[in-house]
Amino acid sequence: MYQQISSNKRRTWLLLLCFVALTWLLAYLIGKALGSPDLLFLIGICSLLYATYGYFGGSKLALAVNGARQVQKADDPRLWRTVENLAITDGLPMPKVYIMDDPAPNAFATGRNPNTSVVCATTGLLQIMDDNELQGVIAHELGHIKNYDIRVNTLAFVLVGVIALVADFFLKFTFFGGEREENSQFAWLALVAAVLAPIAATLLQLAISRRREYLADATGVLTTRYPEGLVSALQKLENVNTATRRQNTSTAHMFFVNPLRGHSITNLFSTHPPIEDRIKALQEMKF
Q1: Average pLDDT over residues 245-250
Q2: How distant is the alpha carbon of residue 235 from its chain centre?
Q3: Angle, helix 149-172 to helix 184-224, in steps of 10 degrees
Q4: Cβ-contact 156, 209 below 8 angstroms
Q5: Average pLDDT for 230-253
Q6: What is the pairing mode between strands 118-122 and 96-100?
Q7: What are residue 210's phi and psi, to 5 degrees?
Q8: Paired residues of 99 in beta bridges
Q9: 265 pLDDT tier (thresholds 50, 70, 90)
Q10: What are the residues facing 251 on neighbouring strands?
Q11: Is 141 a catalytic residue?
């Protein structure tokens, strides 16, 4: 199990390094094509501002767009006690507890750090899970908090946004603003990069999201010492509709299982690894 956790962390940071390299390469090629060597600096400033906004405002926005409401212990003692007991076990501050009024069984966690963390479950999840299964799901979500996954996912989301904005700027400049003759040798290369880079960035973001799901599964099981609870919860979710009524692609990666309608043609475009793969990974883990 500890080897699985270490492996997931290493792969995540490798993917983030690829992300940064892709951003730098795109900025370099466009800067050369436009004859603007200062473009790297400008992209860095924009990335910092965008990251700051996402870091401080992302959690509130995620809760708002999904229609989550905060609850106290008296509102749902079972959920509250589950979160509280597992937070104590993990040595984490008590997160705020939210509920989504949605029949789709799902859950998510958000927050900049453990001191500002939030755990949210749908009414559908609370209805179909027994106590052991609910503990497995909540332990998974606390694993995201413990591993600072929200920070990692926010960084990935920011980089995707920056790459998309830079690529869009260059494409519009090329088609409507013309190009500089002295840098024409870079123009076609930059044009191809501007088309392909946002696609590659999205694939990297999805890969990071999937790696963090495996990591949260392993961390959650390490907390409960009862992998059967999480495995049973995942098995239940294989046979039900987990798509939430409020569809939002920007927060889909935060959920326990995929909350979007429909299925991708390929797993490359999924925010979550296949449930059967997660079950298999859990069953192969040894303490």
Answers
A1: 83
A2: 22
A3: 160
A4: yes
A5: 91
A6: parallel
A7: -65, -40
A8: 69, 121
A9: very low
A10: none
A11: yes
